[in-house]
Write a structure and sequence with these properties.
By secondary structure, the chain is an alpha/beta fold. The protein has 2 domains: 104 residues, Enolase-like, N-terminal domain (Enolase-like, domain 1, 2-Layer Sandwich), CATH 3.30.390; 199 residues, Alpha-Beta Barrel (TIM Barrel), CATH 3.20.20. It is built from 11 helices and 14 strands. Strands 5-6-7-8-9-10-11-12 form an 8-stranded parallel sheet. It has a 3-stranded antiparallel sheet with strand order 1-2-3. A hairpin with a 2-residue loop joins strand 2 and strand 3. The chain starts with a strand and ends in a 9-residue tail after the last strand.
């Protein structure tokens, strides 16, 4: 039976403004791939990221270019060979997973050979701002058990101290998004340790992070921009203690599961992360999150509205997706 591929672009308003070291935005622009076969439709959502040379138009074009191969029966194994990792492959891979689940009457979890999904607890992100603004945001989110603090370089020590004072009971992780330098690395790390920060995400720019192997990492350090697929893992040894797995970087759930298994084998801790996007993008990532040390799948919590039906969040606890959403 023939398969048909559709691509659409959607814009979802963010609640307020999402700010990191590279800029700010007020909406999430996502690319939706839908693969239809018979009476079934599988969906996958991705977020192109300019940091990796991606654009919405380029991602749409890359997906559309696969229409003939998808119509001819290309599967997820073949997809990994036919496309490079990134947002375009992620949308197709997740759509194929969803379609297989609907067509065969088996959950995506079962197709992946995993046990039944259980609820997981996600971090909640505080956007980059002044120490005072971040303290106010931390007060509003102080009831959440795990906060992810966006940092930006100058002034980060004051930001960390302000958030810790405003949310004394919350666990903290921080994400510098490549904004630190070698000169302030150890001082910033010491402030993080004093504040009880449990993980520092991508402090130095990818490709300029060798200094991480020359210091005593008193707080574990997690690779984000420095990691995309399992092929990158061997180059991270000695510099990073954990890796942030995002489906938009790996190019889909298929590669993400392989990356998680190899990262565990090599002794890395695992964070599962996301772009700011809807529940449709979070749902497949929940399969990887089942065995993760840190889960950062709060994308829908940062939006002004989400898909219907979406994932059920009870505070910071995410429940498995309904069949109508994905998988």
């Amino acid at each position: 039976m023939l398969r048909f591929l559709d691509v659409t672009v959607e814009k979802w308003p963010i609640a307020g403004r999402f700010v990191i070291s590279r800029g700010s935005r007020t909406e999430a622009e996502v690319v939706l791939a839908t693969i239809r076969e018979g009476g079934h439709a599988g969906r996958g959502e991705s977020v192109p990221y300019a940091r990796y040379g991606e654009s919405v138009a380029g991602t749409v074009a890359a997906i559309e270019a696969m229409a003939e191969a998808i119509g001819g029966g290309l599967d997820r194994t073949g997809l990994r060979q036919a496309m490079p990792p990134g947002a375009a492959r992620n949308a197709i891979d997740c759509a194929l997973f969803d379609l297989d689940a609907k067509t065969n009457g088996r959950s995506a979890t079962a197709i992946a050979g995993l046990p039944l999904l259980r609820p997981v607890e996600t971090a909640f992100t505080l956007s980059l701002g002044t120490p005072e603004a971040m303290a106010r945001a931390a007060v509003a989110a102080a009831g959440r058990p795990l906060l992810k603090v966006k940092l930006g370089g100058d002034g980060d020590r004051a930001r960390i101290a302000a958030v810790r004072q405003a949310a004394p009971k919350a666990r903290l992780i921080v994400d510098a998004n490549e904004a630190w330098s070698e000169a302030d690395l150890e001082r910033n790390m010491a402030v993080c340790a004093e504040a009880g920060v449990e993980l520092i995400e991508q402090p130095l720019p990818a490709g300029a992070d060798t200094a991480l192997s020359a210091i005593r990492r008193i707080v574990p350090v997690c690779a984000d921009e420095s990691l995309h697929t399992a092929a990158d893992l061997s180059g991270l040894a000695g510099r990073y203690d954990a890796v942030n797995i995002k489906l938009d970087k790996t190019g889909g759930l298929t590669e993400a599961l392989a990356l998680a298994a190899e990262a565990r084998r090599l002794g890395f801790g695992i964070m599962v992360g996301c772009m700011v996007s809807t529940s449709l993008a979070m749902a497949p990532a929940l399969l990887v999150a089942q065995t993760a040390d840190f889960v950062d799948l709060d994308g829908p919590l940062l939006l002004a509205r989400d898909r219907e039906p979406g994932l059920r969040y009870e505070g910071s606890v995410i429940h498995p997706p309904p069949r109508e959403l994905w998988g």
